[in-house]
Amino acid sequence: MTIQLYCFGESGNAYKAALPLELSGLEWDAVYVDFFNGAARTSEFAETVNAMGEVPVLVDGDLILTQSGVIQSYISEKTDKFGGNTPEDKREVLRWVLWDNSKLSAMAGPTRFLMNFLDPAKRPQEVIGFQQGRLKASYTILNTHLTQRDWIVGRSVTNADFSCCSYLFYDEPFGFDRKDWPAIDTWLDRIADLPGWKHPYDLMEPAFPRKKSQ
Ligand SMILES: N[C@@H](CCC(=O)N[C@@H](CS)C(=O)NCC(=O)O)C(=O)O
Q1: Given ligand 1 and candidates 41, 54, 72, 96, which is best to mutate, with the most ligand atoms within 8 Å of its CB?
Q2: Is 54 in the pocket of ligand 1 (CB under 6 A)?
Q3: For position 214, what pLDDT does the model report?
Q4: Is the pLDDT reported for residue 21 higher than 70?
Q5: Residue 1: what pLDDT?
Q6: Rounded distance, CA 178 to CA 146, Å?
Q7: By Cβ atoms counted within 10 A, which residue in 17, 26, 124, 190 is the most buried?
Q8: Are 171 and 211 in contact (CB under 8 A)?
């Protein structure tokens, strides 16, 4: 049975699952979630798809998985790809996925939402400024780590890379400029050069017409 991924193009969290699905060679289909019109907030979604009201959700037959990091682990279990090659590397992948989920994507996703998808009259500048300050610290950590290496863990792409890169490929402004972070910039190019790589909007249907600035 073909794997289904509940997602939408603007979701970097969903991209963390969609990209390894695509690159692993597994058969999968994207199921569009009309997130901005509240589709993930309905009682039906909570009862049948994800009680946490979040995207992404992976459905493989009777199995339903939520949280991008869990979905990534499942893809690695099924394919033996992207999870790290040694016990040490596997732990290190988990470490970076957890860091991304709390310090990078957890800030970048909401900041991008506030700056691009929320009614302009309701955009809280103080919150945006605070989050951009936190994000700057995270970009510094990632850029410093990547200065000495091609991939976040080991010698090939892993779920750590898929997690951390997720929001950084989008064009909508949220205070991240690739040119300010040379090691991140080169690493994003390295990921984009992987055979079969696709931009989030080419893997998952976007809710809004794509704005492309680069
Ligand atoms: N840690 C979760 C985050 C998922 C998440 O926050 N997804 C967003 C869409 S990008 C969402 O569904 N948010 C719903 C909400 O915050 O109410 C993961 O990595 O899967």
Answers
A1: 54
A2: yes
A3: 41
A4: yes
A5: 85
A6: 13
A7: 17
A8: yes
Q: Given the structure tokens 């998985």, which residue do they identify?
A: 65
Nearest one of 93, 51, 55, 99 to 73, comparing CA atoms? 93
Rounded to 5 degrees, what are φ and ψ at 59?
Answer: -120, 120
DSSP state of 208: S
For residues 54-73, give the mean pLDDT: 98
Which pLDDT value is given to residue 210?
80
Establish whether residue 40 lines the binding site of ligand 1, counting it when its CB lies within 6 angstroms of any ligand atom. Answer: yes
Residue 154 pLDDT > 80, yes or no?
yes
Q: Which residues contact 80 (CB under 8 A, 6 or more apart)?
A: none
- Contact between 72 and 17 under an 8 Å Cβ cutoff? The reply is yes
Identity of residue 13: N
Going by C-alpha positions, the residue among 93, 118, 102 that lies closest to residue 10 is 118
For the chain, give the percent of residues with pLDDT over 90: 97
What pLDDT, on a 0 to 100 scale, did the predictor assign at position 212? Answer: 62
pLDDT at 186: 98
Task: Encode pLDDT of 178-201 as tens digits.
Answer: 999 999 999 999 999 999 999 999
Tell me if 17 CB under 6 Å of ligand 1. no
Measured by CA distance, the residue closest to atom 15 of ligand 1 is 54
Residue 56: cis peptide before it, omega within 30 degrees of 0: yes
- Point out which residues pair with 28 in neighbouring strands: 3
